[in-house]
């Protein structure tokens, strides 16, 4: 009998063990990949039409209580192309959301459950008034800061978030094309571009100040058309960059069920995700690092129908430059307990601190729970010391483009959450004296009239 050396035997045994392990792992893998009887039933016996990633995605969705998506599926062989169309859309949505559709549905479920339970996301935090400037429009201090800001504008870039649907307004066109001034009939986009060109000139900038516009499927083509029809309102075509945000699936209820199109049972309803996408787009497209290399120091973010925002941007830029702020939120004076978010510094019992927007219905209870029995009350100025957030920001490029990375949340103003504790985050609140500095076109005339009658802001 031939002798087999111990080392050879060990080698043969290990090879056998390996082969066995591989076969076992494959079977387990196969088994995990194969749909269970319950999954087959939910998919109306159509599982074999899909394999690999597609099938895995369908299984994930079933685990996330989305079986209603397949309720109207017929047996295999009937309407298979339609089923494939829905699965293709699901895959596309899976690829465009960080973490995929499963992460999207899980996040939505968690947020909806927290809101149903009335959970306070700021439990454990103590609010205090953040670093900031309260300025009266046109005051000597304002003018001084404005002069500083005009100088700083020579190294500024501008970002306009304009992907919103404008559902509340009920207007079929894009909001940027609405008239912003009645004397000339100039639209919002024209007023914005003219303001940037004026800053470009008065700051003595050595190169054109860049403008990025975030669009979505709902606004992209019309924004492009508006720019082209008006020769970019005087900007050089390559001065303007359009970045299109992806859409996310709509939810049909508070259990985060994905909503099928009522007119097409093989299509999900989708909508833009929120203006927070702008950070991921600026980082991911490489535009931000390009700007940084070109010497851009400040990025000013603003929204589609805020006709007065350029009255505030130069002074706010002045504050950013003077105080070297990483983040500067342009804010408005806010009456105590008024129903808009307030900017607050929140310090956790663990020592972690951040300056962010706190919704009014969270701010008042948080103050009451942390030693302020009357909650959000006015100070000697007659306003709450927590200024009103309007989601118009000025960010310092070096910190923004740094390690913090973009947060895929729905609000652009959530960005400071990502910053280290010692980041310099402040606000510039400008009292327009004669009226509201923040008066976007948001509601239909009927809704605005009703709001006005009830004494609330008509935003
Ligand atoms: P709004 O809060 O006014 O929302 O957006 P909206 O989507 O435009 O309008 P409704 O809610 O459907 O009535 C504030 C700003 O954020 C932009 C809007 O274009 C506007 O400048 N936005 C909003 C985006 O760029 N993307 C989005 O997904 C949502």
From TrEMBL:
GO terms for molecular function: UDP-N-acetylglucosamine diphosphorylase activity; UTP-monosaccharide-1-phosphate uridylyltransferase activity. It comes from the Eukaryota. GO terms for biological process: UDP-N-acetylglucosamine biosynthetic process. Pfam families: UDPGP. Residues 400-421, 436-459 are annotated as: Disordered. Residues 450-459 have a biased composition (Basic residues). Keywords: Nucleotidyltransferase, Transferase. Its cofactor is Mg(2+); Mn(2+). The keyword Zinc-finger does not apply. InterPro entries: Nucleotide-diphossugar_trans, UDP-sugar_pyrophosphorylase, UDPGP_fam. The keyword Oxidoreductase does not apply. It catalyses: a monosaccharide 1-phosphate + UTP + H(+) = a UDP-monosaccharide + diphosphate. Its EC number is 2.7.7.64. Belongs to the USP family. This is UTP-monosaccharide-1-phosphate uridylyltransferase. The lineage of its organism: Eukaryota, Viridiplantae, Chlorophyta, core chlorophytes, Trebouxiophyceae.
